[in-house]
Structure formats: structure tokens, C-alpha cells
Amino acid sequence: MSEFRELYQEVILDHNRNPRNFGVLEDANRFADGTNPLCGDKVKITLRVEDGKIAAVRFDGMGCAISTASASVMTETLLGKSEEDAQKLFESFHDLITHGSAGEVDKSLGKLKVFGGVSEYPTRIKCAILCWHTMKAALDGSQEPVTTE
Ligand code: ZN
After folding, report:
1. Residues 12 and 67 sit within 8 Å (Cβ to Cβ)
2. What does the pLDDT look like over 122-146, one tens digit per residue?
């Protein structure tokens, strides 16, 4: 087993057991709901945007280990970022989990890089990307619930 894959499993286990920023943000000014019917993952993203920056972000819902860990690491990463950076991270994360970490990886992804391991399991990609699509919908002010199908 590669060192990278060990790290991937370690991060998934840790964030699934102890999700960061879990719950609903009471004073959110952006929010969206998302579902991944293929796996049964459900996520609610609540954000507070102040002066174009993400001042607070939380996720709620029920899902598999990968969807929970992905949402947990996402909220950690997005805190304090500008809306523009959040959109850029979405693109980079999408590239990473669909193409893996063999290619060029955006350095600003930080801990998110371990999710490159998901690219080896195509059925899990939707689990990992669900929270990101939902976050994007929240920032875009979309009222439609997000679905990966
Ligand atoms: Zn899942």
C-alpha cells in the first residue's frame, strides 16, 4: 500500500469519526441542499458570506464515510476564503477526483489533495463531489436542490 493511500484512508476515517463544522449555521445567508441518490448521501450546506469572504460554513446531513469526510475537509478549507477562491477550488477539486493526482495538482488544495485517491473508485466520485456542488449552488444563490444524477 502506498504512503499516499494510507494518508487517504487516515483522513477519511478521522473526518468521518469527528466531522468538523457539523450542524446548521443559524445566521447563514447562503444555503443549499444536495443528494446523491446513487449512494443515498444527503447534505445541507449553510454559509455566512461577509464582504465576499466565507466567514462561517457548516454542513449537515447523513452520508457514507467519503461524503462526510469530503464535506468536513471542504468546510475546513473554505473558511476565510473569498467566493472567487471557493469557485476555483471547486474546479481544482473536480479535476483532482476525476483525473487523480498523477497530473498537475493545484497547490492551494492543501489537505483536499488526499481525495485524489477517490479517482480510483469511479462510483465514489459522486460521494466526494456532492458537498462541492451543493456549496457552489449555495454561493450561486440557487434555490433548486442539487442532485448528482
Ligand atoms: Zn456516498
Report:
1. no
2. 889 999 999 999 999 999 998 788 9
Closest C-alpha to 118, from 108, 107, 132:
132
Confidence check: pLDDT of 89 > 80? yes
Is residue 19 situated within a structural domain? yes
Neighbours of ion ligand 1 (CB under 5 A): 39, 41, 64, 67, 127
CB contact at 8 A, 96 and 105 = yes
- Residue 17 CA to ligand 1 center (angstroms) comes to 15
Determine, yes or no, domain membership for 67: yes
Over range 67-86, report the average pLDDT.
97
Which CATH number is 32's domain given?
3.90.1010.10
Question: How many structural domains comprise the chain?
Answer: 1
Ligand 1 centroid to Cα of residue 125, in Å, is: 9
Q: pTM (2 decimals)?
A: 0.93
Q: What is the pLDDT of residues 99-110, one digit of tens each?
A: 876 666 777 888
In a domain, 117, yes or no: yes
Tell me, in angstroms, the distance from the centre of ligand 1 to residue 130's CA. Answer: 9
Distance (Å) from CA 50 to ligand 1 centroid: 31
Which domain range does residue 20 map to?
A: 3-144
